[in-house]
Protein backbone atom coordinates (compact mmCIF):
# COMPACT_ATOMS: atom_id res chain seq x y z
CA UNK A 1 0.00 0.00 0.00
CA UNK A 2 2.21 2.79 -1.23
CA UNK A 3 2.58 6.06 -3.01
CA UNK A 4 5.59 7.51 -4.81
CA UNK A 5 7.29 10.10 -2.58
CA UNK A 6 8.56 11.91 -5.64
CA UNK A 7 4.95 12.70 -6.48
CA UNK A 8 3.86 10.73 -9.52
CA UNK A 9 0.91 12.50 -11.19
CA UNK A 10 -2.33 11.66 -9.47
CA UNK A 11 -5.29 10.46 -11.48
CA UNK A 12 -7.57 13.38 -12.31
CA UNK A 13 -10.68 13.24 -10.14
CA UNK A 14 -13.95 12.76 -11.97
CA UNK A 15 -17.55 12.06 -11.15
CA UNK A 16 -18.08 9.51 -8.40
CA UNK A 17 -20.66 7.93 -10.61
CA UNK A 18 -18.41 7.46 -13.67
CA UNK A 19 -18.42 4.15 -15.50
CA UNK A 20 -15.53 1.75 -14.87
CA UNK A 21 -12.73 1.70 -17.43
CA UNK A 22 -12.88 -2.07 -17.83
CA UNK A 23 -15.65 -4.65 -18.21
CA UNK A 24 -17.59 -5.19 -14.97
CA UNK A 25 -16.17 -8.66 -14.25
CA UNK A 26 -12.59 -7.74 -15.05
CA UNK A 27 -10.43 -6.58 -12.14
CA UNK A 28 -8.40 -3.43 -12.58
CA UNK A 29 -4.86 -4.69 -12.25
CA UNK A 30 -3.00 -1.40 -11.93
CA UNK A 31 -0.22 -2.73 -14.20
CA UNK A 32 0.07 0.68 -15.85
CA UNK A 33 1.01 2.38 -12.59
CA UNK A 34 4.74 2.99 -12.01
CA UNK A 35 6.41 1.23 -9.11
CA UNK A 36 6.68 3.32 -5.97
CA UNK A 37 9.90 4.21 -4.19
CA UNK A 38 11.36 2.91 -0.96
CA UNK A 39 10.96 6.24 0.84
CA UNK A 40 7.23 6.22 0.36
CA UNK A 41 6.93 2.56 1.29
CA UNK A 42 8.59 3.12 4.64
CA UNK A 43 6.72 6.33 5.35
CA UNK A 44 3.49 4.42 4.70
CA UNK A 45 4.58 1.54 6.92
CA UNK A 46 5.52 3.86 9.78
CA UNK A 47 2.36 5.96 9.39
CA UNK A 48 0.07 2.94 9.60
CA UNK A 49 2.14 1.61 12.49
CA UNK A 50 1.60 4.91 14.32
CA UNK A 51 -2.15 4.92 13.71
CA UNK A 52 -2.49 1.44 15.12
CA UNK A 53 -0.40 2.22 18.19
CA UNK A 54 -2.64 5.22 18.90
CA UNK A 55 -5.93 3.64 17.90
CA UNK A 56 -5.81 -0.08 18.67
CA UNK A 57 -4.12 0.20 22.06
CA UNK A 58 -7.37 1.48 23.63
CA UNK A 59 -9.30 -1.36 21.99
CA UNK A 60 -6.75 -3.97 23.06
CA UNK A 61 -6.32 -2.97 26.69
CA UNK A 62 -6.86 0.68 27.70
CA UNK A 63 -10.64 0.64 27.27
CA UNK A 64 -10.85 -2.58 29.28
CA UNK A 65 -8.96 -0.93 32.12
CA UNK A 66 -11.18 2.15 32.06
CA UNK A 67 -14.38 0.04 31.94
CA UNK A 68 -13.13 -1.95 34.92
CA UNK A 69 -12.41 1.30 36.77
CA UNK A 70 -15.77 2.93 36.01
CA UNK A 71 -18.06 -0.12 36.13
CA UNK A 72 -16.41 -3.11 37.86
CA UNK A 73 -18.02 -6.44 36.98
CA UNK A 74 -19.75 -5.07 33.86
CA UNK A 75 -17.41 -6.06 31.05
CA UNK A 76 -20.41 -6.19 28.70
CA UNK A 77 -20.19 -2.37 28.64
CA UNK A 78 -16.97 -2.77 26.66
CA UNK A 79 -18.93 -4.50 23.90
CA UNK A 80 -21.53 -1.75 23.83
CA UNK A 81 -18.86 0.96 23.63
CA UNK A 82 -16.82 -0.65 20.85
CA UNK A 83 -19.94 -1.56 18.94
CA UNK A 84 -21.27 2.00 19.08
CA UNK A 85 -17.99 3.39 17.76
CA UNK A 86 -17.93 0.97 14.86
CA UNK A 87 -21.54 1.85 14.03
CA UNK A 88 -20.64 5.55 13.81
CA UNK A 89 -17.85 4.79 11.34
CA UNK A 90 -20.12 2.57 9.31
CA UNK A 91 -22.59 5.41 8.86
CA UNK A 92 -20.02 8.12 8.13
CA UNK A 93 -17.43 6.11 6.15
CA UNK A 94 -18.73 6.20 2.57
CA UNK A 95 -19.64 9.90 2.75
CA UNK A 96 -16.15 10.75 3.98
CA UNK A 97 -14.65 8.50 1.31
CA UNK A 98 -16.56 10.26 -1.48
CA UNK A 99 -15.61 13.67 -0.06
CA UNK A 100 -11.96 12.60 -0.07
CA UNK A 101 -12.22 11.47 -3.71
CA UNK A 102 -13.61 14.88 -4.66
CA UNK A 103 -11.57 17.15 -2.36
CA UNK A 104 -10.18 20.34 -3.93
CA UNK A 105 -7.24 21.55 -1.84
CA UNK A 106 -3.66 22.70 -2.22
CA UNK A 107 -2.56 19.63 -0.22
CA UNK A 108 -4.33 17.18 -2.49
CA UNK A 109 -7.20 14.81 -1.75
CA UNK A 110 -5.95 12.62 1.08
CA UNK A 111 -3.70 14.70 3.35
CA UNK A 112 -6.32 17.20 4.60
CA UNK A 113 -8.42 14.32 5.92
CA UNK A 114 -5.38 12.82 7.65
CA UNK A 115 -4.63 16.13 9.39
CA UNK A 116 -8.23 16.62 10.52
CA UNK A 117 -8.35 13.00 11.70
CA UNK A 118 -5.25 13.42 13.85
CA UNK A 119 -6.71 16.49 15.55
CA UNK A 120 -10.00 14.75 16.31
CA UNK A 121 -8.23 11.53 17.31
CA UNK A 122 -5.99 13.29 19.81
CA UNK A 123 -8.98 15.02 21.40
CA UNK A 124 -10.72 11.65 21.69
CA UNK A 125 -7.83 10.15 23.63
CA UNK A 126 -8.08 12.96 26.19
CA UNK A 127 -11.81 12.39 26.52
CA UNK A 128 -11.36 8.66 27.17
CA UNK A 129 -8.55 9.21 29.65
CA UNK A 130 -10.51 11.74 31.71
CA UNK A 131 -14.06 10.37 31.29
CA UNK A 132 -15.92 10.32 34.64
CA UNK A 133 -18.50 7.76 33.50
CA UNK A 134 -19.23 5.06 30.94
CA UNK A 135 -21.30 7.31 28.69
CA UNK A 136 -18.50 9.84 28.18
CA UNK A 137 -16.00 7.01 27.75
CA UNK A 138 -18.18 5.69 24.93
CA UNK A 139 -18.41 9.14 23.36
CA UNK A 140 -14.62 9.36 23.39
CA UNK A 141 -14.32 6.02 21.60
CA UNK A 142 -16.75 7.17 18.90
CA UNK A 143 -14.58 10.25 18.32
CA UNK A 144 -11.49 8.01 18.19
CA UNK A 145 -13.11 5.80 15.55
CA UNK A 146 -14.02 8.81 13.42
CA UNK A 147 -10.67 10.58 13.86
CA UNK A 148 -8.05 7.86 13.65
CA UNK A 149 -10.28 5.93 11.26
CA UNK A 150 -10.06 8.81 8.79
CA UNK A 151 -6.28 8.88 9.07
CA UNK A 152 -6.01 5.16 8.35
CA UNK A 153 -8.66 5.26 5.64
CA UNK A 154 -6.93 7.99 3.65
CA UNK A 155 -3.58 6.27 3.97
CA UNK A 156 -5.21 3.25 2.37
CA UNK A 157 -7.02 5.33 -0.26
CA UNK A 158 -3.67 6.67 -1.40
CA UNK A 159 -2.38 3.14 -2.00
CA UNK A 160 -5.24 2.52 -4.40
CA UNK A 161 -4.25 5.73 -6.19
CA UNK A 162 -0.67 4.66 -6.90
CA UNK A 163 0.26 1.09 -6.05
CA UNK A 164 0.89 -1.26 -9.03
CA UNK A 165 -0.11 -4.92 -8.89
CA UNK A 166 3.50 -6.12 -8.69
CA UNK A 167 4.03 -4.40 -5.33
CA UNK A 168 0.68 -4.89 -3.62
CA UNK A 169 1.49 -8.12 -1.78
CA UNK A 170 4.92 -6.98 -0.64
CA UNK A 171 3.83 -3.58 0.61
CA UNK A 172 0.62 -4.95 2.10
CA UNK A 173 2.79 -7.49 3.89
CA UNK A 174 5.00 -4.78 5.36
CA UNK A 175 2.07 -2.59 6.41
CA UNK A 176 0.14 -5.64 7.61
CA UNK A 177 3.09 -6.63 9.76
CA UNK A 178 3.41 -3.09 11.09
CA UNK A 179 -0.26 -2.81 11.97
CA UNK A 180 -0.22 -6.12 13.81
CA UNK A 181 2.99 -5.41 15.70
CA UNK A 182 1.79 -1.92 16.65
CA UNK A 183 -0.77 -3.16 19.21
CA UNK A 184 1.97 -5.29 20.77
CA UNK A 185 3.99 -2.15 21.44
CA UNK A 186 0.83 -0.36 22.52
CA UNK A 187 -0.12 -3.07 24.98
CA UNK A 188 3.45 -3.20 26.30
CA UNK A 189 3.35 0.56 26.89
CA UNK A 190 -0.11 0.36 28.44
CA UNK A 191 1.07 -2.34 30.81
CA UNK A 192 3.59 0.13 32.23
CA UNK A 193 1.16 3.06 32.42
CA UNK A 194 -1.93 1.58 34.06
CA UNK A 195 -1.62 3.88 37.09
CA UNK A 196 -1.97 7.08 35.05
CA UNK A 197 -5.02 7.22 32.78
CA UNK A 198 -3.81 10.25 30.83
CA UNK A 199 -0.47 8.67 29.97
CA UNK A 200 -2.23 5.38 29.25
CA UNK A 201 -3.95 6.99 26.25
CA UNK A 202 -1.70 9.89 25.27
CA UNK A 203 1.69 8.15 25.05
CA UNK A 204 0.47 5.77 22.29
CA UNK A 205 -1.32 8.74 20.72
CA UNK A 206 1.88 10.78 20.56
CA UNK A 207 3.59 7.99 18.61
CA UNK A 208 0.75 8.06 16.09
CA UNK A 209 0.90 11.84 15.69
CA UNK A 210 4.65 11.89 15.03
CA UNK A 211 4.66 9.08 12.48
CA UNK A 212 1.59 10.25 10.54
CA UNK A 213 2.94 13.80 10.48
CA UNK A 214 6.10 12.53 8.78
CA UNK A 215 3.96 11.03 6.03
CA UNK A 216 1.88 14.18 5.60
CA UNK A 217 4.96 16.40 5.40
CA UNK A 218 7.17 14.32 3.12
CA UNK A 219 4.73 12.59 0.74
CA UNK A 220 3.67 14.90 -2.07
CA UNK A 221 0.16 15.10 -3.48
CA UNK A 222 -0.81 17.22 -6.45
CA UNK A 223 -2.85 20.38 -5.92
CA UNK A 224 -6.48 19.51 -6.68
CA UNK A 225 -8.04 22.98 -6.42
CA UNK A 226 -8.58 23.04 -10.17
CA UNK A 227 -10.35 19.68 -10.34
CA UNK A 228 -13.74 19.65 -12.04
CA UNK A 229 -16.57 17.14 -11.79
CA UNK A 230 -19.29 16.65 -14.40
CA UNK A 231 -21.86 15.74 -11.75
CA UNK A 232 -22.76 17.84 -8.73
CA UNK A 233 -22.65 16.20 -5.33
CA UNK A 234 -26.06 16.31 -3.65
CA UNK A 235 -27.50 14.68 -0.51
CA UNK A 236 -29.34 12.22 -2.74
CA UNK A 237 -26.26 11.26 -4.75
CA UNK A 238 -24.27 10.87 -1.54
CA UNK A 239 -26.81 8.43 -0.17
CA UNK A 240 -26.64 6.41 -3.39
CA UNK A 241 -22.89 6.00 -2.91
CA UNK A 242 -23.57 3.66 0.01
CA UNK A 243 -24.84 0.99 -2.36
CA UNK A 244 -23.71 -0.81 -5.50
CA UNK A 245 -24.96 -3.84 -7.43
CA UNK A 246 -22.96 -6.91 -6.30
CA UNK A 247 -23.66 -8.58 -9.65
CA UNK A 248 -21.68 -5.87 -11.40
CA UNK A 249 -18.52 -6.62 -9.43
CA UNK A 250 -18.82 -10.23 -8.18
CA UNK A 251 -15.15 -10.67 -7.26
CA UNK A 252 -15.14 -7.49 -5.21
CA UNK A 253 -18.31 -8.77 -3.51
CA UNK A 254 -16.75 -12.12 -2.59
CA UNK A 255 -13.75 -10.30 -1.18
CA UNK A 256 -16.11 -8.12 0.85
CA UNK A 257 -17.93 -11.14 2.27
CA UNK A 258 -14.71 -12.97 3.12
CA UNK A 259 -13.37 -9.95 4.95
CA UNK A 260 -16.68 -9.50 6.80
CA UNK A 261 -16.68 -13.07 8.09
CA UNK A 262 -13.01 -13.01 9.07
CA UNK A 263 -13.29 -9.74 10.98
CA UNK A 264 -16.49 -10.86 12.65
CA UNK A 265 -14.60 -13.80 14.11
CA UNK A 266 -11.57 -11.67 14.88
CA UNK A 267 -13.70 -9.13 16.77
CA UNK A 268 -15.37 -11.87 18.80
CA UNK A 269 -11.92 -13.22 19.63
CA UNK A 270 -10.16 -9.98 20.56
CA UNK A 271 -12.73 -7.68 22.17
CA UNK A 272 -12.73 -9.53 25.48
CA UNK A 273 -9.08 -10.62 25.48
CA UNK A 274 -8.19 -8.95 28.77
CA UNK A 275 -11.24 -10.39 30.54
CA UNK A 276 -10.68 -13.82 28.95
CA UNK A 277 -7.07 -14.03 30.11
CA UNK A 278 -8.00 -12.77 33.56
CA UNK A 279 -10.69 -15.45 33.81
CA UNK A 280 -8.48 -18.34 32.66
CA UNK A 281 -5.55 -17.25 34.85
CA UNK A 282 -7.62 -16.34 37.90
CA UNK A 283 -6.21 -12.81 38.19
CA UNK A 284 -7.53 -9.23 37.94
CA UNK A 285 -7.79 -7.38 34.63
CA UNK A 286 -4.93 -5.06 35.65
CA UNK A 287 -2.71 -8.05 36.40
CA UNK A 288 -3.72 -9.75 33.15
CA UNK A 289 -2.63 -6.64 31.20
CA UNK A 290 1.00 -7.22 32.12
CA UNK A 291 0.80 -10.90 31.18
CA UNK A 292 -0.87 -10.10 27.86
CA UNK A 293 1.88 -7.60 27.11
CA UNK A 294 4.51 -10.27 27.70
CA UNK A 295 2.71 -12.88 25.60
CA UNK A 296 2.17 -10.37 22.81
CA UNK A 297 5.92 -10.02 22.34
CA UNK A 298 6.03 -13.65 21.15
CA UNK A 299 3.37 -12.75 18.62
CA UNK A 300 5.79 -10.42 16.83
CA UNK A 301 7.63 -13.34 15.25
CA UNK A 302 4.39 -15.13 14.36
CA UNK A 303 2.90 -12.00 12.82
CA UNK A 304 6.11 -11.40 10.83
CA UNK A 305 5.91 -14.88 9.33
CA UNK A 306 2.26 -14.44 8.41
CA UNK A 307 2.31 -10.87 7.09
CA UNK A 308 5.65 -10.55 5.35
CA UNK A 309 5.88 -14.20 4.32
CA UNK A 310 2.35 -14.27 2.96
CA UNK A 311 2.62 -10.88 1.25
CA UNK A 312 5.94 -11.50 -0.48
CA UNK A 313 5.04 -15.04 -1.54
CA UNK A 314 1.68 -13.97 -2.94
CA UNK A 315 3.48 -11.45 -5.18
CA UNK A 316 6.15 -13.92 -6.23
CA UNK A 317 3.74 -16.79 -6.92
CA UNK A 318 1.05 -14.42 -8.25
CA UNK A 319 -1.53 -16.16 -6.09
CA UNK A 320 -3.73 -14.60 -3.41
CA UNK A 321 -6.68 -16.88 -2.66
CA UNK A 322 -4.79 -19.84 -1.21
CA UNK A 323 -2.98 -17.56 1.25
CA UNK A 324 -6.21 -15.89 2.38
CA UNK A 325 -7.88 -19.27 2.92
CA UNK A 326 -4.86 -20.52 4.83
CA UNK A 327 -4.92 -17.43 7.04
CA UNK A 328 -8.55 -18.05 7.98
CA UNK A 329 -7.81 -21.70 8.78
CA UNK A 330 -4.79 -20.85 10.93
CA UNK A 331 -6.70 -18.27 12.92
CA UNK A 332 -9.53 -20.76 13.44
CA UNK A 333 -7.08 -23.36 14.74
CA UNK A 334 -5.60 -20.86 17.19
CA UNK A 335 -9.02 -19.78 18.44
CA UNK A 336 -9.99 -23.41 19.12
CA UNK A 337 -6.76 -24.01 21.03
CA UNK A 338 -7.49 -20.96 23.17
CA UNK A 339 -11.09 -22.06 23.68
CA UNK A 340 -10.01 -25.38 25.23
CA UNK A 341 -6.98 -24.01 27.08
CA UNK A 342 -6.76 -24.37 30.83
CA UNK A 343 -3.27 -23.04 31.37
CA UNK A 344 -0.83 -20.42 30.11
CA UNK A 345 1.20 -22.61 27.68
CA UNK A 346 -1.89 -23.47 25.62
CA UNK A 347 -2.95 -19.83 25.63
CA UNK A 348 0.45 -18.93 24.18
CA UNK A 349 0.20 -21.60 21.46
CA UNK A 350 -3.28 -20.43 20.50
CA UNK A 351 -2.21 -16.79 20.46
CA UNK A 352 0.76 -17.65 18.21
CA UNK A 353 -1.45 -19.42 15.67
CA UNK A 354 -3.94 -16.58 15.58
CA UNK A 355 -1.07 -14.11 15.13
CA UNK A 356 0.15 -15.96 12.02
CA UNK A 357 -3.40 -16.00 10.68
CA UNK A 358 -4.03 -12.32 11.34
CA UNK A 359 -0.72 -11.31 9.78
CA UNK A 360 -1.26 -13.33 6.60
CA UNK A 361 -4.86 -12.21 6.22
CA UNK A 362 -4.09 -8.53 6.80
CA UNK A 363 -1.40 -8.61 4.12
CA UNK A 364 -2.77 -10.80 1.37
CA UNK A 365 -6.44 -9.87 1.63
CA UNK A 366 -5.49 -6.20 1.35
CA UNK A 367 -3.53 -6.98 -1.82
CA UNK A 368 -6.49 -9.01 -3.08
CA UNK A 369 -8.81 -6.06 -2.43
CA UNK A 370 -6.60 -3.76 -4.50
CA UNK A 371 -6.59 -6.37 -7.28
CA UNK A 372 -10.40 -6.41 -7.52
CA UNK A 373 -11.18 -2.80 -6.54
CA UNK A 374 -13.75 -1.30 -8.97
CA UNK A 375 -13.55 2.18 -10.52
CA UNK A 376 -10.08 2.79 -9.11
CA UNK A 377 -9.45 6.09 -10.91
CA UNK A 378 -12.71 7.76 -9.94
CA UNK A 379 -14.15 6.09 -6.84
CA UNK A 380 -11.29 4.49 -4.93
CA UNK A 381 -12.25 6.20 -1.67
CA UNK A 382 -15.90 5.26 -2.08
CA UNK A 383 -15.32 1.55 -2.73
CA UNK A 384 -12.63 1.23 -0.09
CA UNK A 385 -15.04 2.86 2.35
CA UNK A 386 -17.71 0.34 1.37
CA UNK A 387 -15.09 -2.32 2.06
CA UNK A 388 -14.75 -0.66 5.44
CA UNK A 389 -18.28 -1.93 6.16
CA UNK A 390 -16.76 -5.40 6.13
CA UNK A 391 -14.78 -4.47 9.23
CA UNK A 392 -17.00 -1.82 10.84
CA UNK A 393 -20.18 -3.92 10.78
CA UNK A 394 -18.47 -6.81 12.61
CA UNK A 395 -16.93 -4.34 15.05
CA UNK A 396 -20.40 -2.91 15.68
CA UNK A 397 -22.40 -6.14 15.79
CA UNK A 398 -20.01 -8.75 17.19
CA UNK A 399 -19.40 -7.00 20.54
CA UNK A 400 -23.15 -6.48 20.95
CA UNK A 401 -24.02 -10.16 20.49
CA UNK A 402 -20.91 -11.55 22.20
CA UNK A 403 -22.47 -11.18 25.69
CA UNK A 404 -25.20 -13.60 24.55
CA UNK A 405 -22.56 -16.27 23.84
CA UNK A 406 -20.80 -15.47 27.11
CA UNK A 407 -24.05 -15.93 29.01
CA UNK A 408 -24.80 -19.43 27.65
CA UNK A 409 -24.53 -21.89 30.52
CA UNK A 410 -23.30 -19.24 32.93
CA UNK A 411 -25.69 -20.39 35.64
CA UNK A 412 -25.66 -19.08 39.17
CA UNK A 413 -21.88 -18.71 39.27
CA UNK A 414 -21.93 -16.03 36.60
CA UNK A 415 -18.82 -17.49 34.92
CA UNK A 416 -18.64 -16.39 31.29
CA UNK A 417 -18.65 -18.99 28.47
CA UNK A 418 -15.47 -17.92 26.68
CA UNK A 419 -15.06 -21.39 25.13
CA UNK A 420 -18.25 -20.94 23.09
CA UNK A 421 -17.30 -17.39 22.10
CA UNK A 422 -13.90 -18.45 20.77
CA UNK A 423 -15.37 -21.47 18.95
CA UNK A 424 -17.87 -19.25 17.12
CA UNK A 425 -14.96 -16.95 16.24
CA UNK A 426 -13.09 -19.91 14.72
CA UNK A 427 -16.07 -20.90 12.54
CA UNK A 428 -16.42 -17.34 11.24
CA UNK A 429 -12.76 -16.92 10.26
CA UNK A 430 -12.67 -20.25 8.48
CA UNK A 431 -15.81 -19.30 6.54
CA UNK A 432 -14.15 -16.00 5.62
CA UNK A 433 -11.21 -17.80 4.07
CA UNK A 434 -13.54 -20.08 2.12
CA UNK A 435 -15.53 -17.16 0.70
CA UNK A 436 -12.50 -15.67 -1.06
CA UNK A 437 -11.90 -18.93 -2.95
CA UNK A 438 -14.94 -17.96 -5.07
CA UNK A 439 -13.03 -15.06 -6.65
CA UNK A 440 -12.32 -15.77 -10.33
CA UNK A 441 -10.31 -12.85 -11.75
CA UNK A 442 -7.38 -13.35 -9.34
CA UNK A 443 -5.62 -16.65 -8.68
TrEMBL record:
Cell compartments where the protein resides: Cell membrane
CDD domains membership: MFS
Record keywords, A-Z: Membrane, Transmembrane, Transmembrane helix
Short name of one Pfam family: MFS_1
Membrane topology: Multi-pass membrane protein
Keyword set includes Transmembrane helix: yes
Residue span(s) of domain Major facilitator superfamily (MFS) profile: 43-443
Listed InterPro entries: MFS, MFS_dom, MFS_trans_sf, Na/Gal_symport_CS
Low complexity composition bias: residue spans: 1-20
SUPFAM superfamilies recorded: MFS general substrate transporter
Membrane spanning stretches: 39-65, 77-100, 112-131, 137-159, 171-192, 198-219, 260-279, 291-313, 322-340, 346-370, 382-406, 418-437
Signal peptide (from-to): none
Keyword tRNA-binding on entry: no
Region ranges (Disordered): 1-28
Protein name (record): MFS transporter
